[in-house]
Give the backbone structure.
Amino acid sequence: PMLYAYFGSKEGLYLAYIDRTGRELVDRLVGAAGQAQSGAARLRAPIDEFLAFVEEHRAGWTVLFHEITASRPLAEEVAQLRAQVAGAVCRMLPSGSGGCTDGAAADGIAHAIVGAGESLANWWLAHPEVPRAEVTEWYVGLVQSAAGRRLPDAGAR
């Protein structure tokens, strides 16, 4: 009864969770990117932060990705969150490689990077024996390829 008093429904609870954790995710991504100096570190830091977020919110992440197809309001809320994350990713990409100043291609590349990250995170949760650092490196390589060029200090950790 308390759940329904606060959230109105199971859907309301999910929407509140998406809103709260979505803001946390975007803030963490932007913060991690802002703290890094070099191109590769600027890319690696938010990717590692994203995977740390997934690791910390394992149960919630799993529930949301199984529930979002069941409800239109949830799917719409997750789509808005994806758009926010894609916007943050777009701003992190360097100019000339699909960065925000590069027009429509930038939006498409950013959404592709976000979709790949979601898929990789879901795979990783099913394979917890793979260290986060290794998954981070895979994702860094994927993002570098999607961005169309290698970032400076790509081999640096």
